[in-house]
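Try this one yourself first.
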């Protein structure tokens, strides 16, 4: 080793580089380029990488080799066979098996160097041997990630102080649960990692909830066929870590934990310009009209990212979308001292019961055909649950000693008999908010709606962003409410077990089913 040491020291003196960096290069002469990625004891060796294609490199960590997926973008000689001596190197490395300290980290070296808190967050051109940013150099060239900001080892920590996630999953390509063709079924496939635009953020998905919409898409009913154009990555209820932000983004930082508003609006229609974005006539749904969150990564506009507080349970973060539906529906009307009926004890109906209790309702009654789900509603704060296969809302009034009917109705089932029973048991002047989507149109007793002066209001999604503030504050200020929402999550599955997860969600013997993508 003395010869290697001497050669390294001499070369270091001539280059003006640290001896340790040069020694690693000298000790592995078969490598075209040796890269120090800023992790003690780790050096990446690139062997004859080609332009625009993947080539195999090698990670040497304590003498243990590991496979590295390398994409070379620049710094080649005239034959395109190897980096020009001293030229820039830009490689994306998947360190899957390189040891616990770097397992699964995405490392960008060379042209896009590390991000330093002391700098302005713009990637710098990296040194070809060390892979470290050189002050004063410009941003990337064509074929790199440009000026977008990404986490690399030693880079900035997010606003909340979170350490970047270390995981062994694929980085490029990424896993994605996809509707590949028109027809029933889904497939978990490898797809290219989604690109982050200048106004976007890329989120590494940690948890994702299965929604009734996802079941429709998997089953490919008439609604799905008329709405979705395959191929499409589905899923819209999620929570994860921000791993990349576009150059125009402010207010969102790498390392932040976030949920996502699943409706993307145009910003140009009359309602958007008037501040009523939830009424946008050009709304696009994540996982419905554009690729969604049943994947390792999802890209959304930065304005749709809802930054979550430190310490929030990832499972809870994944249900903010349906919790927002429940909040938007339940808080349409003042509830203090009112008698409230909720038809449908799915996850949203159960969360609506928790909101009604939190908001000061006198009585909260929940109906459904599933005893399993009605038990969840009781735990969430319902005073009385009615299994509609055995009883009706008229029976509920008798049990509670009510004399005039319900003041507020929250329709979450989409079932015609539930709506009919609700209208028949509303007080004069009663107010009904309808969220449940029916499978087909149905008749109503319009005479009773008119003569009893009942107000009907359709609800879709969440108000942007009043609903998000409301539910965040309820979660933050009430342990009882937080616990009531958390108990709605009854089943958790690794992403690879998505088929079992979907079957569980279809069974009705569950609350919210969550997929773990971490």
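Now uncover the answer:
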């Amino acid at each position: 080793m003395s010869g290697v040491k001497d050669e390294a020291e001499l070369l270091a003196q001539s280059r003006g580089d640290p001896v340790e960096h040069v020694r690693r290069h000298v000790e592995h002469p078969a490598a075209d380029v040796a890269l120090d990625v800023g992790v003690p004891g780790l050096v990446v060796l690139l062997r004859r990488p080609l332009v625009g294609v993947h080539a195999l490199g090698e990670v040497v960590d304590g003498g243990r080799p590991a496979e590295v997926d390398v994409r070379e973008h620049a710094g080649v000689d005239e034959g395109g066979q190897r980096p020009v001596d001293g030229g820039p190197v830009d490689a994306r490395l998947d360190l899957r098996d390189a040891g616990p300290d770097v397992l699964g980290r995405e490392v960008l070296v060379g042209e896009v160097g590390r991000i330093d808190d002391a700098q302005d967050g713009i990637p710098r051109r990296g040194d070809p041997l060390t892979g470290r940013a050189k002050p004063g150099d410009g941003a990337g060239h064509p074929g790199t990630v440009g000026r977008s900001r990404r986490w690399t080892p030693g880079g900035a920590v997010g606003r909340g102080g979170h350490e970047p996630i270390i995981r062994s999953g694929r980085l490029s390509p990424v896993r994605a649960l996809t509707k590949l063709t028109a027809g029933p079924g889904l497939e978990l496939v490898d797809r290219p990692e989604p690109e982050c635009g200048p106004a976007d953020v890329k989120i590494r998905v940690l948890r994702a909830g299965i929604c009734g919409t996802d079941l429709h898409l998997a089953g490919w009913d008439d609604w799905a066929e008329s709405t979705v154009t395959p191929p499409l990555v589905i899923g819209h209820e999620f929570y994860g870590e921000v791993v990349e932000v576009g150059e125009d983004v402010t207010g969102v930082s790498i390392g932040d934990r976030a949920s996502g508003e699943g409706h993307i609006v145009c910003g140009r229609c009359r309602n958007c310009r008037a501040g009523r974005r939830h009424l946008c006539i050009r709304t696009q749904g994540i996982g419905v009209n554009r690729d969604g969150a049943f994947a390792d990564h999802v890209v959304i506009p930065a304005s749709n990212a809802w930054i979550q507080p430190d310490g929030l349970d990832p499972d809870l973060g994944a249900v903010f979308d349906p919790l927002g539906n429940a909040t938007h529906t339940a808080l349409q009307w003042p509830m203090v001292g009112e008698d409230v009926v909720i038809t449908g004890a799915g996850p949203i109906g159960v969360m609506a019961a928790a909101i009604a209790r939190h908001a000061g309702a006198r009585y909260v009654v929940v109906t459904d055909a599933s005893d399993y789900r009605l038990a969840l509603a009781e735990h969430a704060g319902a005073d009385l649950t009615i299994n509609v296969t055995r009883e009706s809302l008229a029976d509920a009034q008798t049990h509670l000693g009510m004399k005039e009917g319900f003041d507020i109705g929250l329709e979450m089932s989409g079932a015609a008999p539930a709506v009919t029973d609700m209208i028949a048991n509303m007080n004069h002047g009663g107010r009904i908010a309808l969220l449940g989507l029916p499978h087909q149109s149905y008749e109503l007793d319009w005479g009773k709606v008119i003569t009893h002066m009942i107000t009907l209001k359709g609800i879709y999604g969440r108000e942007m962003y009043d609903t998000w503030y409301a539910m965040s504050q309820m979660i933050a200020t009430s342990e009882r409410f937080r616990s009531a929402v958390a108990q709605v999550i009854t089943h958790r599955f690794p992403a690879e077990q998505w088929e079992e997860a979907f079957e569980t969600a279809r069974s009705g013997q569950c609350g919210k089913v969550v997929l773990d993508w971490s």
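Discussion: Residues 2-15 form the longest helix (14 residues). Confidence is low (pLDDT under 50) at residues 1-5, 21-34, 36-43, 45-171.
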